[in-house]
User: Fold these one by one.
Assistant:
Number 1:
Amino acid sequence: MNAPAPSPNKTVNTADLYDERGDELASVPLQFQSLGGRSHFSGPVRTIRCYQDNGLVKSTLATPGNGAVLVVDGGGSLGTALMGDMIAESAVANGWAGVVINGAIRDREAIAALDLGVKALGSNPRKSAKASAGEVDVDVVIDGVTFRAGVTVWCDPDGILVER
């Protein structure tokens, strides 16, 4: 039986959470950078799979987030940014808790000033395509860990945990 997700107002440290729940949680071994203004964030997962095209990221973050975390599998590409400051500002305005990007962002100083959790592999000033190529709310696998729409994810400077 899964324990209830902690209140979004309570800071949860992933190390403590893993100590409590152990193998109920998967830990992402890939080393993401913490790039947003919110260091600790969690919520139900929404997913996108895309490659060097942020059209779906932009349109999804422009919808009500209701405290969710968008997990974007950009294939680990650092060739183009999948989110910049304007898309991140839209995420804040629409109530998203955070974004995890297996890829790059841009405008990292502006994003660091926003009340949004952001984990990404790095940054690149180059814009991505805008064709909206990709898939939404499909299972994505990042470094051997599966993210399914609706499960809870927790992120902090130590890493990323997701319900199995």
Number 2:
Amino acid sequence: MATLKEFEEALREQGMNMALALLQRLRERDRATRTIKPARRLTGQKMTPELARAILDLHASTGMTQQEIAFKVGVNQGRVNEVIKRGKWLNEDPQAPEAVARDKAKARMRGEPKTQRTATKPTVRKDRPIAARPRQSPQGQLAFGDL
């Protein structure tokens, strides 16, 4: 399949000036009628409990899809799903998982150093010594000690 540019070059090689003039007129007409359509969403809305309640109201009172609700309120469809299915963002609890994640993301954007988490070692069961535990070989395979 040839591109429009290749088609135009072939017309030029063949000396088809009338076809080139027609192509140019079509381009100019297209430019004159072309409009720049606005983007679906320029900036996302900040999720707030009020916005979450508005999402729930739209979901309950209309037959709109999650995508349509997202477009109407200015958030992405994933956020709408979180509100509807899991009840996220419905309260202003600063310890809620979504609020903690939001605060961490904001701190990363500001360039703040990471907060140090205390590393906890996994607990080891001490009811039996490690050597006394029976060794399990994978099923269907033979190991050297099996024969």
Number 3:
Amino acid sequence: MQHQSTDHDNIPASPFAGEAPDMFFGLPMAMARAMALRGERIGNDMAQVRMGFQANQANSRGEVHGGAIATLLDCTLAAAARAHDPAAHGVATIDLTLHYVAAGSGDLIATARCERRGRSISFARGEVRAEDGTLVAMATGSFKLIARAPAPAKA
């Protein structure tokens, strides 16, 4: 079995389990539905996200397109950057560097860890694996933390 660099057992179950398909760890994100992203676990400065395979996001060989993998990594690293208080913060990606290692097919699972969080900038790294454990891609990124405004009071 291949070594996995992120300790999945240290990521708590998501307090947002069962959220609507257009929600992502407590925040509205229509793209989560379009990309079949499901936030599985978040906390302890880490996040785990599953991207369900969709044939319309496959390349000419029927494998998951690199752009879809990049989206999965961007969203997972961003989630790790706000994992300390997921409902209170959004993020904006400043920089994202990816390395594709192998082709991916079927559902893909990304895990990420926030390595350092400052007052406004966070740094994260993560990876994507196929369900059989095959390493598909790795990434690092920097993210701007954005405090979420409280929901307006309903009249």
